[in-house]
Amino acid sequence: ADIISTVEFNYSGELLATGDKGGRVVIFQREQESKNRPHSRGEYNVYSTFQSHEPEFDYLKSLEIEEKINKIRWLPQQNAAHSLLSTNDKTIKLWKISQRDKRAEGYNLKDEDGRLRDPFRVTSLRVPVLLPMDLMVEASPRRIFANAHTYHINSISVNSDHETYLSADDLRVNLWHLEITDRSFNIVDIKPANMEELTEVITAAECHPHQCNVFVYSSSKGTIRLCDMRAAALCDRQSKFFEEPEDPSSRSFFSEIISSISDVKFSHSGRYMMTRDYLSVKVWDLNMENRPVETYQVHEYLRSKLCSLYENDCIFDKFECCWNGSDSAIMTGSYNNFFRMFDRNTRRDITLEASRENSKPRAILKARKVSTGGKRKKDEISVDSLDFNKKILHTAWHPKENVIAVAATNNLYIFQDKIN
């Protein structure tokens, strides 16, 4: 139940939310820097924990609905409280997280223990006062958006107008207004009239960071469609279609499975988007549809192991990817608790490991290398000894600083730039 299923920084990076398979949301808050502890600035401590979703049962279809949190998305902060959207397979909830550190005391019509007083016995008028109290953080559900998805929700994305958001399942994308829970607009529907003709499913969807009419969705066939909501109410015909032609020489039995896109993310600038398939990360320029401008191999050494990865179902793992705040670097996960970072300017890349053994506070992470056969150097790890049960599917990068959050099964690791 405590396996982490999503990780997300808020817009300022001061809060970090994680969701898990047990339906819980845990929010971490960054410590303010203090004079007596100058290096404590990067530390995140638990701020609030609440149960977002409960297991349910669909009696019409005789299906259990898992409580697992599939995605969390923060809303821009409008007032002192914070808001986030969390979703399981079927239901999206809008949560408000607020804090209280003062309480009112000195009521006229009720006693200190809360009992109502007889109005005839009130002889003097008291002015209530605010007294300090221990900090209380409350999470309350403000809206519940239900009954709009027949299939499992894989993505939610808040629009740049901050009034609407989209949710996507295997065959449809819906557009919601944050204030309206009883209806949504269906903007993409790829369900064929005959389900036997089904050839692809939607794997991820995201709104453009600046243009509220533009969104993209990716498919299990390795294609990405960019749609403009101004063109038509139902965006069945995409405005742009991104697909890389397949190299016939490298075609194999697994080609279709490993080309399925597990995540798509717009850059903060809105000029590029990044897609993650099983073996690689690709960066696309929105103005060029026929091929990506950059391709980074995440774990090319697994190409020879696809047969055993197919047998143990790892080939269907859905890895996410993320940009740093300035779009100059990207990060994604791999197996053996490894995660990969690529610098887009220098084309350098590094493999790091998130594990209990090498993550003592303030310790510097050492680069890891995987040997693919032949003679193994001293500090390299052999491809055959990688642990495929230890996988990093979910990562997040602070929007302004070099602070990253990496979810390794049921552990959350937070790393930051070396402090000199």
From TrEMBL:
GO molecular function: protein phosphatase regulator activity
Record carries keyword Electron transport: no
SMART domains: WD40 (SM00320)
Highest taxon, organism lineage: Eukaryota
UniProt keyword list: Repeat, WD repeat
SUPFAM superfamilies found in the cross-reference section: WD40 repeat-like
GO cellular component: protein phosphatase type 2A complex
Keyword Repeat: yes
Matching PANTHER family: PROTEIN PHOSPHATASE PP2A REGULATORY SUBUNIT B
Similarity comment text for this entry: Belongs to the phosphatase 2A regulatory subunit B family.
Subunit: PP2A consists of a common heterodimeric core enzyme, composed of a 36 kDa catalytic subunit (subunit C) and a 65 kDa constant regulatory subunit (PR65 or subunit A), that associates with a variety of regulatory subunits.
Protein's recorded name: Serine/threonine-protein phosphatase 2A 55 kDa regulatory subunit B
Organism of provenance: Hucho hucho
Lineage: Eukaryota, Metazoa, Chordata, Craniata, Vertebrata
